[in-house]
Design goal:
By secondary structure, this protein is mainly α. It has 18 helices and 2 strands.
Length: 377
């Protein structure tokens, strides 16, 4: 297993993370109560959650959805690791499938936060690591780390794989990247980071890098590639079947054409609060990525965050979901975490005010998008 000494301050960072996210869950429950909805149902049965639970219970190929325009959306669009873990937990523990899904999401969220802390501590020290975890917990859409979605599981695998790259633990980095590729369609972002750094190592050492580097580069993309090819085989089109499945969901790389049309319609006709907020968050992610590059962050973090940002900008699909796709891109928060740390050292009251305000916004906005908004999460 990955061995390390728990650095000082990890408990404080994880306590902050758990407190903010527990407040977010409480806000969802309170909003459900105020609007006469089931108190906890939407934590495990919102949008994609229902597809994952159905896969966990019945396997693939059992559920399709006919869209109003006649499109056929199938469960093959959803990657297998999360429903497999839900099924395993449901089988091994006296839990309902929904409770098993929540247990996995909450556990993965804490594991992810610890991985984020380790990366921050390794690169910048305890204060910045704590700020990084706190900012990640207080993102506007961070509620989606603690519902029955795959973001927390993917973030956990990504953070620990990237940490292993930074610590030259290549076999673990490749194995975790492989698993990340089984968790989400964007899982190849982790593989891209591992392969990019491995290629750099091979170039610097004139091809004489340790065997573990080669193994990591070969292992990293196998999870994502294996599932894509399996879906293609199941649909009768090995190389194109998976992409046809995703296309039926409106998910494809259109080089920003769909996003441009959306922005034009939003400026012309307006929309719910969630849409301008989503647009603002995407634009902020571009700024944060530029700042991350200017910080000269490690190549693994830049590659991982860059691929996720690129997919959000160039990909089609529901614009309201784009902030969720950026949730695992925690390296984008490094410049803000370092700035918050500097503020803490000179003006601690101001740093507390900023952090507290972000947490309050995250808690309230999370309840809004989970309970009150009818657009896809």
């Amino acid at each position: 297993m990955v061995r390390h000494r728990a650095p000082h301050g990890a408990l404080l960072a994880l306590t902050l993370f758990a407190a903010v996210r527990a407040a977010g869950i409480a806000a969802v429950i309170a909003t459900n109560a105020l609007t006469d909805r089931p108190l906890v149902r939407n934590l495990a049965h919102s949008w994609d959650s229902r597809w994952y639970l159905n896969i966990a219970a019945h396997g693939y190929g059992r559920l399709i959805w006919i869209t109003p325009t006649g499109g056929v959306q199938s469960d093959w669009a959803f990657f297998p690791l999360y429903p497999a873990l839900v099924r395993a937990a449901d089988t091994a523990l006296p839990l309902t499938p929904a409770a098993a899904a929540m247990l996995i999401s909450w556990t993965a969220a804490v594991v992810a936060a610890y991985g984020v802390y380790l990366i921050g501590h390794h690169l910048y020290g305890r204060a910045t690591a704590t700020a990084l975890v706190a900012l990640w917990a207080a993102l506007p859409h961070a509620v989606e780390l603690t519902i029955a979605y795959t973001e927390s599981l993917f973030a956990a695998l990504a953070a620990w794989s990237l940490y292993c790259v930074l610590r030259d633990r290549w076999l673990w980095a490749g194995t975790l990247a492989l698993l990340a590729g089984l968790a989400r369609p964007t899982g190849f972002a982790v593989a891209a980071a591992v392969i990019t750094v491995a290629a750099q190592q091979l170039r610097l050492r004139r091809g004489q890098a340790a065997p573990g580097v080669w193994a990591a580069a070969l292992l990293a993309p196998l999870g994502w590639l294996g599932y894509v090819l399996w879906v293609g085989w199941c649909t009768g089109d090995v190389t194109g079947g998976y992409f046809a499945v995703q296309g039926a969901w409106g998910s494809r790389v259109d080089f920003g054409a769909g996003a441009a049309r959306f922005v034009g319609a939003l400026l012309a006709h307006g929309g719910q609060v969630i849409y301008p907020v989503a647009l603002a968050l995407v634009l902020i992610s571009l700024v944060l990525f530029a700042l991350l590059c200017l910080e000269r962050a490690p190549l693994a973090l830049i590659a991982f965050a860059g691929v996720l940002v690129l997919l959000v900008v160039l990909g089609s699909g529901s614009f309201s979901s784009k902030p969720r796709f950026l949730l695992p891109a925690f390296p984008l928060l490094i410049p803000a975490a370092r700035a918050l740390t500097r503020t803490w050292r000179t003006r601690p009251a101001a740093a507390l005010l900023v952090g507290g305000a972000l947490a309050v916004v995250s808690v309230l906005y999370g309840a809004y998008v989970t309970v009150l908004v009818h657009s896809p999460l």
